[in-house]
């Protein structure tokens, strides 16, 4: 057994960006008023999360061994056996993801996609069911994150191994044959450039004064926060919703 590289730079940078954006988006949705322009950040962070998911999926196909998507699939029986063994048995060490972490990863990668879809459809249609589904997804994801952190604490105590450090340094103890040969700095650079460009784009498409966000993909403008003063309200409706880019151009004229 030696100290080997398990999580390369793309995975580590992805992890901390994802964790930061997820916690940020969740915190804003619960702590910031819907009338505050900063509330718009909640949706912008959601879009950036989806971009990270796309990158992670591509890295899961073409990237390093332990990041491969094929390692995220365990049967429910394997998950149950893993949890039982962790609680009552000696517990088993894994080099890559254990079944619990694999299920968590799959779920937490899928949720932002549905959150963004329901979120944008909700602000454009005002459908209450969508709003409920959107909230359920967010709260459910936070419960999963709580379990993730609990799982890491339990693993740390049980195996007397600071597993959290593996997401910082990238290393774990294991057989030399399972270690990665490279940290893949070029792929990590691609991630940093991609997320910086996406951040610049979404921020420049958002107007903090009016709450309008122009989505390049759908060609629609969405209102990402409710203005309190009633400006922009039509027929007594909240300033929440969508308009076509053509309408926006008409407004600009
Ligand atoms: C103190 C907080 C956290 C620590 C110490 C931590 C640590 C870790 C570690 C050690 C792993 C690898 C587990 C394994 O070996 O199988 C992992 C995976 C993961 N964590 Fe966290 N985590 C934290 C918070 C979060 C948060 C808030 C999120 C966001 C939702 C998150 C999302 C993920 C994801 C998506 C993976 C899978 C990474 C991948 O394969 O791409 N983590 N985390």
* Quantity of strands, as a count: 5
- Gyration radius, in Å: 21 Å
Q: What is the CATH homologous superfamily assignment?
A: Transmembrane di-heme cytochromes, Chain C
Report the major sheet.
3 strands, antiparallel
Q: How many structural units, i.e. domains?
A: 1
What can you see in these coordinates?
The chain is mainly alpha-helical. The protein has a single domain, classed as Fumarate Reductase Cytochrome B subunit, CATH 1.20.950.20. Helices cover 59% and strands 8% of the residues. The chain is built from 8 helices and 5 strands. It has helices spanning 9-31, 40-62, 76-87, 99-125, 128-159, 166-169, 185-204, 245-252; strands spanning 2-5, 171-174, 212-215, 220-223, 241-244. The strands form 2 sheets. The chain has a 3-stranded antiparallel beta sheet. The N and C termini lie far apart (69 Å). Protoporphyrin IX containing FE (HEM) is lined by residues 11, 14-15, 18-19, 22-23, 56, 67, 97-98, 101, 105, 108, 145, 148-149, 152, 163-164, 166-167.
């Amino acid at each position: 057994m030696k100290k080997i590289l398990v999580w390369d730079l793309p995975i580590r940078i992805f992890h901390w960006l994802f964790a930061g954006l997820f916690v940020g988006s969740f915190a804003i949705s619960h702590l910031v008023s819907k009338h505050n322009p900063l509330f718009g950040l909640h949706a912008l962070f959601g879009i950036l999360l989806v971009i990270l998911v796309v990158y992670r999926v591509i890295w899961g196909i073409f990237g390093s061994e332990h990041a491969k998507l094929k390692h995220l699939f365990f049967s429910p029986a394997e998950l149950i056996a893993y949890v039982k063994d962790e609680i009552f048995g000696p517990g088993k060490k894994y080099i890559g993801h254990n079944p619990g972490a694999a299920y968590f990863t799959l779920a937490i990668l899928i949720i932002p996609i549905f959150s963004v879809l329901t979120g944008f459809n909700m602000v454009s249609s005002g459908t209450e069911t969508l709003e409920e589904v959107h909230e359920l997804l967010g709260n459910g994801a936070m419960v999963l994150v709580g379990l993730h952190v609990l799982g890491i604490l339990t693993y740390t105590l049980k195996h007397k191994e600071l597993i959290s450090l593996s997401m910082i340094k990238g290393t774990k103890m294991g057989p030399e044959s399972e270690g990665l040969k490279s940290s893949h700095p070029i792929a990590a650079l691609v991630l940093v450039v991609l997320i910086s460009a996406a951040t610049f784009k979404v921020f420049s498409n958002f107007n903090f004064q009016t709450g309008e966000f122009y989505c390049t993909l759908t060609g629609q403008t969405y209102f990402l926060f409710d203005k309190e003063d009633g400006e922009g309200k039509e027929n007594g409706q909240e300033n929440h919703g969508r308009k076509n880019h053509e309408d926006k151009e008409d407004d600009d004229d």
